[in-house]
Amino acid sequence: MVVDKPAGWTSHDVVARVRRLASTRKVGHAGTLDPMATGVLVIGVGRATRLLTYVTGADKDYAATVRLGVATTTDDAEGEVLARADAAHLTRADLDAQVAVLTGDLLQVPSSVSAIKVDGQRAYARVRAGEDVALAARPVHVARFAVLDVRAAQDDGVAVLDVDVEVTCSSGTYIRALARDLGAALGVGGHLTALRRSRVGGFGLAQARTLDDLGTTPDDEAVPVLPMAEAARAVLPVRELSEADARALSYGQGIDPVDEPEGPVAGIGPDGNLVAVVERRGARLRPAVVFSPA
User: Fold this and answer.
1) Helix pair 92-101, 175-185: axis angle to 10 deg
2) d(Cα 221, Cα 225) in Å, to the nearest integer?
3) Residues 193, 76: Cα–Cα separation, whole Å
4) Choosing from 34, 61, 75, 162, which is the catalytic residue?
5) Which of 17, 123, 143, 279 could pair covalently with 168 via S-S, beta carbons 3.0-4.6 A apart?
6) Burial letters for 63-93: b for 16+ Cβ neighbours within 10 Å, e otherwise?
7) Any catalytic annotation for residue 34?
């Protein structure tokens, strides 16, 4: 299920709502969205939760607004202001130069108020408990960081710039941290004021349903979900299976490779259903997860 997450909801809130709608506890999500953020949140229901690990690592698209001239404790608009600085002197050339620096392979320090676990506890929980949390830099890849519009604004009497951007990035990239680092590089501070995720792998806003829309599902009907084969095709390369190969995988047996790429591959049976996710082990393709057991 692809949900268009509303602002003000946590990803866990969405999972809890879908559990009620689908009448099952077996619900999970692929990649946290901050409460402030909206957009694509991929939800697994029932057996499809076993697909989520392959969705989580997919690249993502975002549309965001960065306010240059104000730094906050959370690197977004929900935090307390740490400092304000006049940003009126910044030129488009200044902005483009630093955006270019923040494109490509980066070592990014995640925002301290994040869902990353530190000694078994979420970083944001430690920060809210008054602890100082310093997270290690992690490798990420920003494939596209495009400036769409720049507008002058005022923030508590200080001249700031609101910058609309689009970002395509690897899993694990924090757009809040990009806003923070852009502002720091320009010497004025920065934070995120709006964030919308428009794509996760092959899942986009065109497929997304609002919670209000999903909530209109009649009680005597199952909540609508994507077929698992369609979901697998959105994030994995596909091996079209023969009857014999589908049968072997359904028994947990290996099959001969053809020309599959490295990494996980979705095995789709002749009936169009997802049989298994397979991976190359030695000279054979073997099932990592079987979805249609014999």
Assistant:
1) 130
2) 12
3) 6
4) 34
5) 143
6) bbbbbbbbbbebbbbbbeeeebbebeebeee
7) yes
> What is the three-class DSSP state of 249?
helix
For 58-81, what is each residue's pLDDT tens digit?
Answer: 999 999 999 999 999 889 998 889
CB 95 within 8 A of CB 186: yes
Three-class HEC string of 19-32 = HHHHCCCCEEECCC
The amino acid at 233:
R
CA 3 to chain centre: 12
Query: Tens of pLDDT along 85-128?
Result: 999 999 999 999 999 999 999 999 988 766 555 555 655 555 55
Tokens 């692809």 belong to which residue?
2
Burial of 120 (0-12, 13-18, 19+ CB in 10 A): exposed
In this prediction the pTM is: 0.91
Element (H, E) at 232: helix 228-233
